[in-house]
Every structure is written in C-alpha cells, then in structure tokens.
Amino acid sequence: MKRTIFIFLFLFIGLGTSIYLYLNQRIVPIEQVFPSKIWAKPIENLPNLKGVGAPTAKNCGGCHTEIYEEWKRSTHANALSDIQFQSELAKPSSPKWICLNCHIPVQNQRETIITGLQNGDYLRPVEIPNPNFNIEMQAEGVTCATCHVRVDSNFKESFVIGGTGGTTPPHPVKIDRKQLLNRCYDCHNETYSLNESLICSFQTGTELIATKSNESCSSCHQPEVRRSFVKPSLNKPIRTSHKHGFIGGGVPKTFDLYQDQIRLGYKPGIVLSDLKVENNRIEVLLRNSNASHHVTTGDPERFYRLILVGIDPLGKIIYKEETTIGQEWVWSPAAKKVSDNRIPYGKSFEWKIELPNLPIETFQFQAVHVRLKNNTSDFMIQSSGYVPSKYKANVDKIKDLYPHSSLVIETKYQLKTKSRKDTPLEELFKRNVNRKGE
Ligand code: HEC
Ligand code: HEC
Ligand code: HEC
Ligand code: HEC
Ligand code: HEC
C-alpha cells in the first residue's frame, strides 16, 4: 500500500515537473504574445537597394545631401546614442528588444533576430545571430529606411517609398504619400501596459485627430522648403521638399544642436497671449496656438515651468512665483497618472496670482520646457553601473553633456508704463547653449 502511494506520488511529481519544464521551455511566437502590435517586431532585413547599396542613411546622404544633414541633427538620428535612453535601456527590468524596436527599428540594425519568447515571457527572448547586421546602420537610430524603405514580397527586392513622384531616381520607388505620413503613428501613438510599472503612453496622434484639423505630423515637423531633392551636381529641378530636422519641444540631445533648432523649424507651441497687472493681481494667459496636440505631449516627464519674478528699482529680485503645466505620474508600486493640466490645441491656460505689497518696478515672466528633471539625472548617475562601458562615461557626465531644459519664452513688464518687451527667440537659444539642468 505504502509503496503504491510512493510510486503514484513519484509519477505525479515527475509528470508535473515535465509539464512545467515543457511549458517553461516552449517558444511562443511574438505575434501570439503581442497580436497586431507594430512595435513588437522590427522591419524585416532589407536587402541592398538597387542603385544605392546598403540602405544606410549615410548612403542615402551621398545624393540627398541636405536632407541627410538635417536628419543627422534630429532627435531621430540620436535615438540610440541618447544618454537618457542608454541609461533607461540598461536597467535590469527593461525589455531591451522592445525598446529597440522603436529606437532602432530596422532588423539590419540588430545583432540578433528574435525568433520567439520563452514561455511567452517578454523578458526571455530567444535570439539567433542576424547575418545581415550592419553596425554602421545600428548607430543611425530612426534611420531613413524606417520610413522610406521596404521589401517587395514578390521580388524580394528593396524599394523606396516616396510622396511626390517623377524625375528618374536611380533606385526603385513606389509612391504612397499616405503611408509615409501615417508612419508617425506607429511609434508616437501607442498606449500599452507591459506590467504594472512599465507602461507606454503616447497619444499625440489621438490628440491631433481630436482637433479635426487636416494637418499631418509632417505639416509642422517637416516644414516645406523649395529646393532640389538631391545634390546640385545631379541637375534635378527645384521642387517642394520637406525639412528633415523633426524638431519638437526645442530641447535637443546635445548642446551644439541648439544652433540649428530655429533654422530647422522650432517654435514654441504656447504663445503668451496676455499679461496684465491690476489691483495687486497679475494674470498670465498662455494659449496653445502652434501645436495641434497637447502641450506638452509625448514623453510624460516633459513639462513647462512658468516663472514670475518681481524686480525692485535697484534691479534686485524681491518676489518669485512658479507653477507647472504637464502631467504628473507615480511609477511605483504601479504606474498611475496623478494630474494633468496640459493645454490642448486652441485652448488657454490662465495663471492668476495675488501680489503682496512690495516695491516692484518690473516683472519678468519666463517659460521653460523641461525634458529631464535634475533628480532623474541624479538617479541615472547613481545607477550608471549597469550602463555598457561605451556609454557609461557619458551618463556620468550627463549634467554637462545633456540639455535638460530650454528657456523658450521671456518677457519683461514695466509696471509704470504698462509696457511689455519680449526677448527674441534667437537670443533665448543663444543663452540656452549655456544653461544647465532643469
Ligand atoms: C512604441 C514605440 C516605443 C517604444 C516601444 C519605446 N519607445 Fe522610447 N520613445 C518613443 C518615442 C516616440 C519617443 C519620443 C517622445 C518625446 O520626445 O516626447 C521616445 C523617447 C524616449 C526617451 C527620451 C525621452 C525624452 O523626453 O527625451 C527615452 C529615454 C526612451 N524613449 C526610452 C525607452 C525605453 C527604455 C524603452 C523600453 C522600455 C522605450 N523607450 C520603448 C517610442 C518608443
Ligand atoms: C545615387 C543617388 C541616390 C541615392 C544614393 C539615393 N537616392 Fe533617392 N533619389 C535620387 C534621385 C535622383 C531622386 C529623384 C530626385 C527628384 O525627384 O528630383 C531620388 C528620389 C528619392 C525620393 C523621392 C521619391 C518621390 O518621388 O517622392 C525618396 C523618398 C528617396 N529618393 C529616398 C532615398 C533613400 C531613403 C535613399 C537611401 C536608402 C536614397 N534615396 C538614396 C537619388 C539617390
Ligand atoms: C520607428 C519609430 C518612430 C517613427 C516611425 C517616428 N518616430 Fe519620431 N521619434 C521616435 C523616437 C524613438 C524619438 C525619440 C528619440 C529620443 O528622444 O531619444 C522620436 C522623436 C521625435 C520628435 C522629437 C521630439 C523632440 O522634442 O525632440 C519629433 C518631432 C518626431 N519624432 C516626429 C515624428 C514624425 C513627424 C514622424 C513621422 C513622419 C515620426 N516622428 C516617426 C520614433 C519614431
Ligand atoms: C520619420 C520618418 C522619416 C525619416 C526617418 C526620413 N524621412 Fe524622408 N520623408 C518623410 C516623409 C513623411 C516625407 C514626405 C512628406 C510629404 O510628401 O509631405 C519624406 C520625404 C522625403 C523625400 C522627398 C523630398 C521631400 O523633401 O519631400 C526624400 C528625398 C526623403 N524624404 C529622403 C530621406 C532621407 C535621405 C532620409 C534619411 C537621411 C529620410 N528621408 C528620413 C519621412 C521620413
Ligand atoms: C500644427 C502644428 C503641429 C502638428 C500638426 C503636430 N505638431 Fe508636434 N509639435 C508642434 C509644436 C509647435 C511643438 C512644440 C511644443 C512645445 O514644446 O511648445 C510640438 C512638439 C512635439 C513633440 C515634442 C513634445 C512636446 O510636447 O514638445 C513631439 C514628440 C511631437 N510634437 C510629435 C508630433 C506628432 C507625432 C504629430 C502627429 C500626430 C504632431 N506632433 C503634429 C506642432 C505640431
């Protein structure tokens, strides 16, 4: 009797262990774990493009010289080298392959191909070496091919997606302007919770659609310019082209990129539409006139800091008030949005302040777009031990190397004359080069 129980128990444990082992070793296809999620897979390996060679941005830049120079200065081109990205990517909890699917989105940019997930667990990808890995293309972040190059499924040949047509390019082209314009949504409009504290919350596309405007993301982020699509020596006609700097909130990834922000199309989304002082009360009115989505949008850490100071006749600051426009989240134990006072398109934000009785002669108002908080970069330095050696030194020097914020509106208001003088944007961006921190 005792023996039979033991045998049964033994069989039971054995069977249980094998089922457990089987399930745990089972390789589940990515599409099964993340059905119809574009970011769950990179764009398939792209064979060499006829007339071009490897579909790297550098090769495209051989003919599309100006577009290449603009794109080189964009946040897209910096999407892998970004100090903040490298620091967050290195966290042991980050599902690196998923992050890379949006930050280096073409399979040629990846050392390995992911064939599935062990037991469907996104932290256990099964990887094999990628024979088409191109290390030069890896460094290019959101490279040209992300939006422009695909493989023809019949001929297994790469082709370029264009929006215009004509004038005999040396490479195969298919015209599909709509597909090109809608591509932004794949990465900039995703809301998904991987687990309680790791969520993605980009609703820029949804915000744009809600305004019912006819604009696309490119209408503003790729301003039109009349020029040849290619270098002058190819003798092609002047046409309507689009700047490729993809300028957003005006906080670039390195200090030397400040000088290109305005040239490539930066303007603040919010406009200081009114500032008035009456009976010990000051009213600041800001309107989102320039961005057909919320300001701030995209990364939930971004916010605007509004600063009002009162200056006495001797030039001394004797009064200061601050407030913020943005979202506030707590990330642990579970991610949760706590507050949100961002400005939707066409709407205004009113800041009313009761003033104390002080001998103020001039008020100065400033709006600062913050991309990274000081205490977040402090934390990055503390945990830089995880960061690969190639990027670690940069993370340790993040305070000096990485713009955290930009001053984008400044005005001075003279109480006696009730006159307002705005500082030109060009001057603010010269000063931004020397600002540090949030
Ligand atoms: C669905 C596509 C997508 C995925 C997946 C994704 N990102 Fe991003 N990431 C973006 C976009 C779009 C932006 C730009 C948002 C902005 O500038 O406001 C961005 C910006 C960032 C930034 C810069 C934030 C800033 O304000 O400058 C960091 C850091 C970052 N991502 C880290 C990660 C990490 C780590 C992961 C993986 C856990 C990840 N991303 C996964 C699309 C993605
Ligand atoms: C050897 C020169 C050369 C190289 C290299 C090259 N192109 Fe072109 N491309 C051209 C020419 C010429 C045109 C047509 C120019 C015109 O229409 O005025 C063109 C047109 C285009 C167009 C516009 C198509 C349209 O009608 O809307 C796109 C988009 C494009 N190329 C993308 C790329 C990308 C992406 C790469 C790199 C993978 C690349 N090109 C590499 C020469 C080149
Ligand atoms: C494959 C994913 C992907 C696609 C497609 C994509 N982006 Fe991005 N975009 C990103 C990532 C990732 C970042 C941020 C990189 C970082 O901060 O390190 C970004 C940053 C930006 C920024 C910069 C924000 C700032 O303040 O610096 C703008 C603007 C932008 N994208 C516009 C566009 C537009 C317009 C399109 C479509 C034509 C587009 N993006 C398509 C992934 C993508
Ligand atoms: C994030 C997506 C994205 C990336 C990355 C990107 N482009 Fe474009 N590109 C577009 C869109 C969208 C258009 C079409 C805009 C339109 O027709 O309204 C375009 C248009 C073009 C055109 C046609 C001429 C023009 O200016 O309209 C050329 C040529 C071109 N891109 C080349 C490149 C090259 C070369 C790179 C890399 C150095 C690159 N693009 C990177 C989205 C992108
Ligand atoms: C009517 C013009 C307009 C359109 C259309 C538009 N944007 Fe913007 N966008 C702006 C302006 C202006 C800013 C700068 C906001 C600021 O920081 O004051 C901006 C900022 C951004 C930023 C940086 C985050 C921030 O809040 O500064 C990202 C990312 C972005 N836009 C992506 C997109 C995407 C994706 C689309 C399409 C779904 C889009 N934008 C459509 C004008 C526009």
Automatic annotation (TrEMBL):
Parts of the chain that traverse the membrane: 5-23
Record bears the keyword Membrane: yes
Domain Cytochrome c-552/4 residue range list: 60-113
Keywords in alphabetical order: Membrane, Transmembrane, Transmembrane helix
Family matches, as SUPFAM superfamilies: Multiheme cytochromes
Stored InterPro entries: Cyt_c-552/4, Multihaem_cyt_sf
Protein name listed in UniProt: Cytochrome C554 and C-prime
Organism: Leptospira montravelensis
